[in-house]
């Protein structure tokens, strides 16, 4: 019969042994050191002022009283160090790092999660809460296939709920994509305060860009006869998407069109006249730069039109400069300027 137990090396009380209480107390000290094992820290040299019951993991290159005890648990009991040889399966709470670990026969590892199970909250290097029940703080995330394809599913309870990806900077949302309050896929953008839809796809597959700059501008009235060299503008938008504006008044009436955003625009100018002695109309940017020119011959009612692609800047103004003599027809569907950001 061996003198100690197989697992914990506690001494047996032998039949012929005197002072059996000593052996019994030694066994109690072993239990006291191992039951609910808490390791304060991993050290290579014993601390100078250990407290009764302190336990440490002896690190590599142990010195002093710990020489040759690397990997053991050193317990300070009754004014001396007791060394316990760690065995596979032992678990301990590492107080210095607040981790529960298990010894696998070679190293101490964090206790693994079960292969199957249900968790109400899970934080990975982060704190989960009742709303963010899965919380992750990491430089990147990887969702890999298991042999074929891979899908990420975001499901919502009702059509009026939201199923989306929200992109934030310093916890303020600036972009969102998904099903936001309906069954229409959309991409939205924010300046930190106001949200606007940049792209929307209906359940039937139709694509719209509700904030893409597009406009049709005309001047109210019936006709006017501009003086040669005079500039004129517009008064009304038949279509205004993307916040086109009306700028300064033009000498020949109407106001300059103001461009809301920089980009490449398709610009179309239509000019309708009732009579002409030979005329021209130039579309000017910022009052001086020619973008396109229309000309007409002497005669009765006629119309001219031109289109072009131009790079415009936010705040640019557009006006018409007239030449010759003509009676210009006003109103929607007559003399108009159309712009679309491509």
From TrEMBL:
Q: What is this protein called?
A: BclA C-terminal domain-containing protein
Pfam families (alphabetical): BclA_C, DUF2793
Where is each BclA C-terminal domain found?
Answer: 247-341
High-level lineage: Bacteria, Pseudomonadati, Pseudomonadota, Alphaproteobacteria, Hyphomicrobiales
InterPro entries from the UniProt entry: BclA_C (IPR041415), DUF2793 (IPR021251), Tumour_necrosis_fac-like_dom (IPR008983)
Q: Which positions carry the signal peptide feature in this UniProt record?
A: none
Which ranges does the record mark as transmembrane? none
């Amino acid at each position: 019969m061996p003198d100690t137990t197989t697992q914990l090396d506690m001494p047996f009380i032998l039949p012929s042994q005197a002072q059996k209480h000593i052996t019994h107390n030694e066994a109690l000290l072993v239990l006291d050191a191992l039951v609910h094992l808490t390791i304060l820290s991993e050290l290579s040299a014993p601390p100078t002022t250990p407290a009764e019951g302190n336990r440490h993991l002896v690190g590599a290159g142990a010195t002093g009283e710990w020489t040759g005890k690397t990997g053991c648990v050193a317990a300070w009991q009754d004014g001396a160090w007791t060394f316990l040889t760690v065995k596979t399966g032992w678990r301990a709470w590492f107080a210095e790092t607040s981790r529960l670990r298990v010894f696998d026969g070679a190293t101490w590892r964090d206790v693994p999660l079960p292969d199957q199970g249900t968790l109400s909250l899970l934080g990975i290097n982060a704190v989960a809460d009742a709303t963010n029940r899965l919380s992750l703080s990491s430089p990147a995330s990887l969702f890999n296939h298991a042999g074929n394809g891979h899908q990420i599913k975001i499901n919502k309870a009702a059509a009026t709920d939201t199923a989306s990806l929200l992109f934030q900077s310093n916890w303020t949302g600036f972009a969102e994509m998904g099903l936001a309050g309906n069954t229409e896929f959309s991409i939205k953008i924010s300046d930190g305060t106001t949200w606007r839809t940049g792209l929307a796809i209906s359940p039937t597959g139709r694509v719209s860009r509700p904030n893409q700059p597009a406009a049709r501008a005309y001047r109210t009235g019936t006709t006017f006869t501009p003086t040669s060299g005079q500039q004129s503008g517009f008064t009304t938008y038949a279509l205004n998407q993307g916040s086109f504006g009306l700028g300064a008044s033009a000498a020949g009436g109407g106001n300059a069109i103001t461009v809301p955003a920089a980009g490449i625009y398709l610009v179309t100018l239509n000019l309708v006249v009732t009579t002409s002695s030979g005329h021209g109309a130039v579309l000017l940017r910022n009052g001086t730069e020619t973008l396109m020119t229309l000309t007409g011959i002497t005669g009765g009612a006629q119309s001219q039109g031109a289109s072009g692609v131009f790079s415009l800047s936010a705040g640019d103004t557009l006006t018409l400069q007239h030449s010759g003599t003509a009676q210009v027809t006003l109103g929607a569907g007559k003399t108009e300027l159309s712009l679309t950001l491509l």
